[in-house]
Write a structure and sequence with these properties.
Strand content: 25-35%
Number of domains: 2
Oligomer: single chain
Strand order of the largest sheet: 2-1-3-4-5
CATH topology of the largest domain: Rossmann fold
Shape: elongated
CATH class of the largest domain: Alpha Beta
Distance between the termini: 39 Å
Largest sheet: 5 strands, parallel
Order of helices and strands: EHEHEHEHEHHEEEEEHEEEEE
Structural class: alpha/beta
Amino acid sequence: MPNSKSFTMTTPIRCLIAEDEPLLAAGLRAELATLWPNLDVVAMVGDGVRAAEQALALQPEVCFLDIRMPGQTGLEAAQALAEDWPEGVPFPLLVFVTAYDQYALQAFEAQAVDYLVKPLDNTRLAACVARLQARLADRAPKADALQQTMLQLRALLGAAPASGTPPRLEVIQAQVGNLVHLVPVADVIYFEAADKYVRVITSEHEYLIRLALKDLLPQLDTQIFWQVHRGTVVQARCIATARRDESGKVFLALRGRSEVLTASRLYAHLFRGM
């Protein structure tokens, strides 16, 4: 298990590489072996879901995450890590790997997030390794590392440029057998991701629609519907109370429903007294 000790140049460091291009992943691993001999690549995966699963299981000190991967993007995998990372365990240093995109690079630079551009440049990779080593060596006194990562991820997750603003959704068309229910969005208490579907929850009914939550989100008014977890979006006026626990998670009691929802640490900042 990782601990809060200071790392030195000779301390074995564990690393995860998430990259869906096998040749690029192998090349990155080979270059890292030369630049950082004591780096132990404990996992190499090709999709975002497995990246999050393996990182949570192995708890490496460093993760290289490709932005565009099947299942989840590198940012979505990082979001999953930030939400589910165990309390008291140092959060890994994240390096995002991306094809050239000026908007994305500006976003990373603004948040002081490490990134690499494809095709990988050895000089840039060497500079990245030096920064990672310095940050690991100076890590013990920085108890707010996870909070800083949360701030960076919130900014990055909200920084994707719009390719044209989609119209606001007014009615959900939920099909049940041969019947299509027209559900006013204003009646929805919360939406919950369910694999490739989304559960639509009102005060009296539940519906299932064939739509990914990430595709639904741009059609919702973010002032009205708050994302509180990577898989949950709640209508703000339907939240009665928010209770925070010691780990930073927030538990939401709802108006019109008996269940309690969980807001992850990544979105806990939404619930602060005025």
